[in-house]
Here is the input.
Amino acid sequence: MLLSLVFPSLLLGGAVLAIQSSVNGSLGAKVGVLASAWLTFTVGAVVTFLLKLFVEPAHAATLFSVPKWQLTGALFGVTYMLAVVFAVPRVGTAATTVAVISGQLSMSLVIDHFGWLGNERLALDSSRITALALLAAALGLIYLSNARRSREAQPATVVNQPHSQTP
Here is the structure.
C-alpha cells in the first residue's frame, strides 16, 4: 500500500517542482532572483511551520539533538532555488529541469555507490550508468532544440548589396 502512494507522490512532487521553477523563473526575471527566492522561502517557512505545529506527530529527535551536519541540508535548498530562478528565463523550464535532474541523478549515484550520508550502499552498475547516459542525451537534445529555436527566432541579417540604379 505504501509503495502505491510513494511513486505517485514523487511524480506529483516533480510536476509541482517544474511548475514552481517556471513561476519562480518568470517572477525572478521581473523582480530579481533574490526577491523571488525570498518569497518562496518565506511562504514555505510559514506553511511548514503551520504543518509542523498542527499536523506532524512528535518525534524522538529534535533539530537540536540530531548530528549538526544534517542541518546543512537546509542550505542546499537555497542553492537549488537560486540556480533555478536564474536559469529558467535563460534556458527554459525543460532544460533547467533536466539539468537539475541530471545533477540530482549524478550525485545520488555517487552517494548510493559509496553509501555516504548514512545511506545503504548500492553499486554503480551498467543499468545506472545507462540511465545517466540517457538523461545526458535528453539534456543534449533539449539544448539542441532550444538552440535551433533561438536561431529561427532571430531575424535574418540583410547583407547590403549595391542596388542598380535605373534612370
In short: The mean pLDDT is 89.
